[in-house]
Design brief:
Blueprint lengths: L1 E9 L30 H13 L2 E5 H11 L8 H8 L2 E4 L13 E4 L3 H10 L4 E5 L2 H9 L5 E7 L18 E9 L5 E8 L6 E4 L2 E4 L1
Parallel strand pairs: 1-5, 1-6, 2-3, 2-5, 3-4
Antiparallel strand pairs: 6-8, 7-8, 9-10
Length: 212
């Protein structure tokens, strides 16, 4: 199986609480709902496409609880995102939730050896296992080299403080851009595949600027 990270980001890399002020206030975050003024129909189609590509879902504890409480209220069979979240196999990474907390449909609890368990999932049969939100889990999987694809939807807003997908502690990486698009509202959709980090040099040789 391939593992993808799918998330919504501000221009300065914040992924916390995009949908509503009360969505995720941990750490004293007060700027939730920052995507709403920029949402458009193209955004909805892109996110639906993410979920269509997935076969199973992998969550950290906070995102799991937030999505469970919201999405299991959505019973419209025509809602692609709700159908995927409510019906597909899910894996919850948590040392504190306990089995009673893994109570959203077909959920398997991963309480130890997280990287080993994820590697075993990837080595098994199937299509794509997706991480949505779950910033700490996404960063841990990236650092371990377990993320095959990043799908990012970048919004033209600077949020400031908040949980970030990448920061100064992130493992260096380059990315191959497999797909890119811009929505009518100016959101930038990127599909990126990690590759080894490299550097080069810009200089002047024989009076001409060169790049090596």
């Amino acid at each position: 199986m391939e593992l993808s990270v799918n998330t919504l980001l501000s221009l300065d890399g914040v992924m916390q609480g995009p949908g509503a002020p009360e969505e995720d206030t941990s750490g004293g975050f007060t700027r939730g709902g920052w995507l709403v003024p920029h949402a458009d129909e193209d955004m909805g189609a892109i996110v639906e496409g993410w979920f269509t590509a997935g076969e199973s879902l992998l969550f950290g504890r906070t995102t799991y609880a937030m999505m469970r409480d919201y999405w299991r209220q959505v019973t419209d069979p025509g809602d692609t995102v709700a159908a995927a979240l409510n019906n597909r196999p899910k894996y919850l990474v948590s040392t504190t939730a306990g089995r009673s907390g893994a109570d959203w449909g077909d959920t398997t609890l991963i309480a130890d050896d997280v990287l080993g368990r994820v590697r075993a999932l990837k080595d098994g049969p199937g299509g794509e296992i997706q991480v949505h939100g779950s910033w700490r889990l996404a960063r841990t999987l990236h650092a371990a080299g377990l993320v095959d694809v990043f799908r990012l939807l970048v919004f033209p807003t600077v949020v400031g403080d908040g949980k970030r997908l990448f920061d100064g502690a992130t493992a260096p990486a380059d990315f191959t851009v497999e797909e890119s698009a811009t929505t009518g509202a100016g959101l930038v959709s990127l599909t990126l595949r990690p590759r080894p980090f490299t550097t080069g040099s810009i200089g002047v040789e024989d009076g001409q600027e060169t790049i090596h």
